[in-house]
Design the sequence.
């Protein structure tokens, strides 16, 4: 780890000015610092300035739930999100997406914006020894190597999976990311990320110098999120799904479905959304059939075909949660 | 002592840590031990940080070093350019020898510097030109292992299968290494070791000192499980060399990645078997071919199947160790046993399914003695075996399964020494150089001393983990308590006799007239003096008893474990729910640390069964998960209700307890999963992908 200066700005705008200052070679933002510390420890980045924004709330309330809009501050922690009863009532998917993420200790410091912008957990990217595409190398080692936790969607050339649980939940609730230091002060979350063929060194489309201040989305009471993890304590999902529904009784009239942990970006499943339209959620066979569409188009690698089996299950369980059903499974 | 049921708070205020927290949830074990209530004596020190481990020894003026290691499974270090690294501020020296390496993590030299940061910067600044070679990364890269042909002519059923287990790395919480503080004519070695005396003896001439001129100190060990047995490892040898050369303390501890790569492991295994049985369940023939995946080592890959715990007639066994490009094995809690028990228990359940028998009935029939049968009967009641449904008969998403496995362990004690000093102020010192690797050695030594003399434990101070104390055994093979407990009791008894002799001389009595009960000295059965007043009659130096013995506990420890799981058949995820772990270990000294050993063995076994797996990149041979993020271990959410049962029936002496409780767990877990889903998963770890594939196989 190299020495670096800590900047303690008074506002997000000031943070943005420091990030944009050309006299530094690498300036990074620190909110919770979870992903940052991982990068520093592995020697993946060597910033000369770390800008601490952890205490810079853009509003006096970290989480605001009103009739037509939810507003979550960039520095709200995952624990803040989990403990907000108003948020749980108004938009369950957001709470469900992070209530079992990482560990209680991490949730107490990890921020909402940091969760959205965390870098992928790919074991080749995270290991200094492997000079992979993402680090300027010539190879995605997962293609011929160990890919059990890699993507089943996308055409490469890099096969990471998107690590954020909040992102798919925000995706199905039409979230918008608000920032300072950018020409356009807001960006719908569906445009926040790009596929590896549009730039393999980064995952987000956040303009240089921009700093997220808050995220807004619409409250969707009929929303749900379900992650399948090999290990229930502090593990990353192998398949996850967020669902937002419009219902007429037990029948789905409209669905939005987005998967996590299966593609380099939050992966919208439009075919599943289409298949779910008109499905009665109490009809298990019909629901299972509609959700099976989640695996359509998957292109598993040598060791991760199982993820294509798991994704429809995650979708189905997210749908049931969104429809207000209690899952009769262990957790 | 503070009595409380409430978890204490450490934030501000007095430290309210209960030292005698009741564990009333295990009533079946009460009254089975010499001491039912004492919590480990160093528990508070350990959780508050007051206990200093070798890795905590940041001595003034110390230098820090790390090895330069091969980043690939096979590569030739052709050229070294260390010019930039040498310019890193704080770097003292760099020594690298170009050579051909055959595993990821193999040292080729070292960097020594004024701080750990400088070491790491220098390592990054090195320009090493490696020429990669092709690699083999598993048993199956080298060996074609298929189904074996054959069957016994009089068999009613013959099963045929291949089982495999992955490499389980050691990854001790306190990594490998230590600190050497060489002062020219004497030295102190702070080692993280399972063998204080084997470290001392293992230095040979490396410190240029006689063994009596330096002290090895190891008061606390953050995990060893076999990997810290024997002499000083390469880390301490490097520290010894640097400390002598630079005349400064030298600190060499592995980081987490190095810990996974180069400090040993439980080797992988592949077992191919056919087993013929009669309708009544008797085994009438078979063949077992096992392979041990030993990385760059040439041996050490034994896979203990058949285990000898079941009666098998005419079953032949052969074994072969297979080398490839990876770090080699090292002793690991019951070497060879868990991998063997996994294959053995699951193959018997598969045979039982073929025969239409309850696997418990089959194992009960085949178990070699009645102790196992009694344990199986008792355990079946405790787990609720009667609720077990036939294999594959459940159709719900969440399916419940039951499994059972058995364990055995015998070890001969190597002998050891102990001293007990009774001081005129009534305090008692209990001394043996043997280390406490987390098992509770410090506590059991105190209990043995207090019990043998007849005084409260609070009067006893225990000194352990120093080579200047009486030599004791290395903690391997579950011999520590069987060796040190009787030795310490002998020493304490002798010290007490010397006290009686002093009292007898002063009053014209016989030493045999005295005894001690509950801290009161009795003469011919009547209260004579309080312990303190009696000790006040001692000369200023007090009295010392010492004992040497090679005759610790002998004979077998036996155990059975029942595992109940729920399997989510849509996701393939296993939820362990309940484990009954019945274990004999002779006379129990300290109930809580004994229970803790059993619980720990179960946890380690479940972790092995469900998650642990060294994953090597198949192309370059580098470990892709040398961390605790992707090298997954059991966490709090996976933890079932674990009930240790101390089997006191017919038990004498102090016998092995460290190793046996981890032997049957993964096997019993696999049997439980087989019961739940109706198809065996024959390859550890039991991850969702394999469970789903097995389910698909069962459906088709």
Sequence:
């Amino acid at each position: 780890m190299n020495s670096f200066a800590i900047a303690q700005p008074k506002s997000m705008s000031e943070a943005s000015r420091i990030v944009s200052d050309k006299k530094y070679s690498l300036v990074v933002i620190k909110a919770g610092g979870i992903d940052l510390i991982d990068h520093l420890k592995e020697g993946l980045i060597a910033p000369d300035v770390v800008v601490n924004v952890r205490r810079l709330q853009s509003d006096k309330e970290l989480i605001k739930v009103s009739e037509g809009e939810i507003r979550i501050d960039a520095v709200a922690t995952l624990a803040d999100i989990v403990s907000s009863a108003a948020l749980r009532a108004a938009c369950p998917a957001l709470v469900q997406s992070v209530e079992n993420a990482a560990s209680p200790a991490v949730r107490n410091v990890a921020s909402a914006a940091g969760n959205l912008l965390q870098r992928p957990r790919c074991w080749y990217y995270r290991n200094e020894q492997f000079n992979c595409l993402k680090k300027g190398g010539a190879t995605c080692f997962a293609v011929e190597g160990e890919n059990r936790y890699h993507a089943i969607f996308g055409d490469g050339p890099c096969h990471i999976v998107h690590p954020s649980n909040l992102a798919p939940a925000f995706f199905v609730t039409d979230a918008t990311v608000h920032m300072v230091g950018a020409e356009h002060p807001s960006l719908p979350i569906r445009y926040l990320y790009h596929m590896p063929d549009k730039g393999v060194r980064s995952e987000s489309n956040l303009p240089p110098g921009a700093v997220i201040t808050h995220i807004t989305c619409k409250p969707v009471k009929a929303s749900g999120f379900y992650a399948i993890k090999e290990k229930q304590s502090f593990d990353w999902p192998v398949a996850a799904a967020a669902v937002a529904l419009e219902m007429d009784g037990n029948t789905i009239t409209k669905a939005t479905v987005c998967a996590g942990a299966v593609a380099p970006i939050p992966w919208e499943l439009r075919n599943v959304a289409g298949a779910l339209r008109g499905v009665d959620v109490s009809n298990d066979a019909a629901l299972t059939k509609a959700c099976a569409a989640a695996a359509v188009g998957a292109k598993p690698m040598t060791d991760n075909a199982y993820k294509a089996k798991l994704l429809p299950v995650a979708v189905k369980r997210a749908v049931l949660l969104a429809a207000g059903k209690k899952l009769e499974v262990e957790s | 002592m503070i009595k409380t049921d409430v978890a204490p708070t450490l934030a501000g205020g007095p430290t309210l840590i209960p030292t005698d927290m009741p564990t009333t949830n295990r009533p079946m074990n009460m009254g089975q031990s010499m001491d039912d209530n004492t919590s480990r004596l160093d528990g508070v020190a350990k959780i508050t940080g007051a206990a200093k481990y070798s890795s905590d020894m940041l001595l003034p003026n110390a230098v820090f070093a790390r090895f330069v290691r091969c980043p690939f499974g096979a590569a030739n270090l052709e050229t070294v350019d260390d010019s930039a690294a040498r310019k890193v501020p704080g770097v003292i020296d760099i020594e690298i020898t170009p050579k051909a390496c055959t595993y990821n993590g193999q040292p080729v030299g070292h960097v020594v510097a004024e701080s750990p940061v400088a070491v790491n910067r220098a390592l990054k600044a090195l320009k090493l030109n490696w020429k990669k070679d092709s690699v083999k990364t598993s048993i199956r890269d080298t060996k074609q292992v298929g189904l074996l042909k054959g069957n016994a002519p009089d068999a009613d059923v013959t099963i045929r299968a291949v089982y495999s287990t992955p490499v389980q790395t050691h990854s001790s919480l306190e990594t490998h290494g230590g600190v050497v503080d060489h002062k020219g004519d004497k030295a102190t070695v702070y080692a993280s070791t399972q063998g204080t005396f084997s470290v001392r003896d293992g230095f040979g001439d490396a410190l240029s000192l006689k063994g009596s001129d330096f002290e090895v100190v190891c008061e606390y060990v953050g995990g060893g499980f076999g990997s810290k047995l024997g002499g000083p490892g390469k880390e301490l040898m490097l520290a010894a060399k640097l400390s002598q050369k630079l005349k400064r303390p030298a600190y060499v501890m592995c980081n987490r990645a190095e810990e996974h790569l180069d400090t040993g492991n439980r080797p992988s295994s592949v077992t191919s078997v056919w087993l013929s049985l009669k309708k009544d369940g008797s085994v009438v023939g078979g063949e077992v071919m096992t392979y041990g995946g030993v990385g760059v080592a040439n041996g050490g890959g034994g896979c203990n199947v058949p285990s000898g715990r079941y009666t098998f007639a005419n079953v032949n066994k052969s074994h072969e160790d297979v080398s490839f490009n990876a770090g080699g094995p090292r002793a690991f809690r019951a070497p060879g046993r868990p991998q063997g028990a996994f294959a053995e228990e699951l193959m018997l359940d598969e045979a039982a399914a073929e025969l239409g028998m309850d696997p418990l009935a089959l194992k009960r029939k085949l178990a070699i003695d009645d102790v196992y049968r009694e344990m199986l009967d008792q355990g079946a009641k405790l787990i609720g075996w009667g609720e077990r449904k036939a294999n594959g008969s459940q159709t719900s998403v969440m399916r419940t399964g039951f499994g059972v496995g058995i364990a055995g362990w015998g070890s001969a004690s190597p002998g050891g020494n102990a001293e007990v000093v009774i001081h005129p102020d009534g305090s008692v010192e209990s001394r043996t150089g043997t280390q406490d690797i987390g098992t509770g050695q410090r506590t059991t030594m105190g209990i043995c001393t207090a019990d043998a003399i007849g005084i409260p434990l609070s009067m006893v101070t225990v000194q352990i983990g120093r080579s200047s104390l009486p030599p004791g055994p290395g903690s391997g093979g579950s011999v520590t308590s069987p060796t040190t407990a009787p030795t310490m009791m002998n020493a304490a008894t002798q010290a007490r006799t010397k006290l009686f002799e002093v009292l007898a001389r002063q009053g014209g009595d016989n030493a045999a007239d005295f005894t001690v009960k509950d801290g009161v000295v009795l003469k011919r059965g009547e209260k004579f003096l309080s312990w303190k007043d009696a000790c006040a009659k001692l000369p200023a130096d007090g009295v010392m008893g010492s004992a040497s013995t090679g005759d610790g506990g002998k004979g077998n420890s036996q155990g059975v474990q029942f595992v109940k799981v729920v399997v989510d058949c849509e996701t393939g995820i296993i939820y362990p729910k309940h484990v009954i772990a019945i274990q004999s270990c002779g006379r129990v000294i300290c109930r809580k640390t004994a229970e803790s050993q059993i619980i720990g063995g179960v946890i380690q076994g479940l972790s092995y069964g469900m998650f642990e797996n060294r994953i090597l990149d198949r192309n370059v041979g580098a470990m892709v998960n040398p961390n605790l993020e992707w090298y997954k271990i059991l966490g709090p959410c996976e933890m079932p209700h674990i009930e240790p049962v101390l089997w006191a029936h017919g038990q004498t002496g102090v016998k092995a307890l460290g190793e046996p409780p981890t032997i049957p767990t993964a096997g019993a877990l696999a049997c439980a999963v087989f019961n739940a889903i109706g198809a065996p998963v024959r390859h550890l770890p039991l991850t969702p992908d394999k469970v789903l594939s097995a389910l698909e196989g069962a459906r088709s």
